[in-house]
Each structure stands twice: as C-alpha cells, then as structure tokens.
Write a structure and sequence with these properties.
- The protein has 131 residues and is mainly beta.
- The chain is built from 1 helix and 11 strands, in the order E-E-E-E-E-E-E-E-E-H-E-E.
Length: 131
C-alpha cells in the first residue's frame, strides 16, 4: 500500500502562483510514475503533469510553460509549481502514483498512470483562481 498526502492548494488571484506537494509513504519502492490530475464538476479527471523515476515529464498542452512538475526522491515527494494561474485552472487537484508497465512510452503514460483500477490516489486539494 502507498499513502499520498497532498498540500498546497488554496485561493489565488489570476496571474499568481501556487505550489502543490504530494508526499508518498508506504510501499513506495513499487512506484515508478507519479502525476497530478485535476477535476471540475461534471468533467472527467484529466492529467495535468506526470513524472517518471527516470525524470521524464509530460504536461497537458494548456499548462505547458506555466506549470512544472518535479520530484525530491530523498523526501519521496512530488511537486507541482503552478505559475501564471488562470481561472480555468480552478479544480480539485489529485496526486496519483503507480507502478506502470515497463516500458511505457511517454505518450501512453497518461493512460497507464490514470487508470482508475490501478495505483493510488491522494485525497485531493482545491485550487481556486479568481479573476
């Protein structure tokens, strides 16, 4: 089992910044990919950014150039630095961790990491961007 604890959400004005953290504990040796997903009411959860243990990253197009995903292996923590926030970034942000199949091409990482029947989800943290 893996436990994920998110922090760092909140209310910010458009153009501002927030940094989300996701601390993993438990059987973390089994994890080789982590990421951030977000969800708004009535919509499907979507990938925001993901990172592998090898340091490879992927982002959804709408956040490229504004968000940065990173990891601190010593602290078993993944971060999402969010800059130039827009009202459309408002959502509940979820951390996800999984041991994805090896190899998993980067263009398949969203599918493999986001599978609802595999891996571990955090409890979610609300990000609200006011205009």
């Amino acid at each position: 089992q893996v436990q994920l604890v998110e922090s760092g959400g909140g209310l910010v004005q458009a153009g501002g910044s927030l940094k989300l953290s996701c601390a993993a504990s438990g059987s973390i040796f089994s994890i080789n990919a982590m990421g951030w997903y977000r969800q708004t009411p009535g919509k499907q959860r979507e990938l925001v950014a993901a990172i592998t243990t090898g340091g490879h990253t992927t982002y959804t197009n709408s956040v490229k150039g504004r968000f940065t995903i990173s990891r601190d292996n010593a602290k078993n923590t993944v971060y999402l630095q969010m800059n130039s926030l827009k009202p459309e970034d408002t959502a509940v942000y979820y951390c996800k961790a999984r041991r994805v199949p090896i190899p998993t091409p980067m263009d398949s990482l969203d599918y493999e990491l986001g599978r609802s029947d595999r891996g571990y989800w955090g409890q979610g943290t609300q990000v609200t961007v006011s205009s």
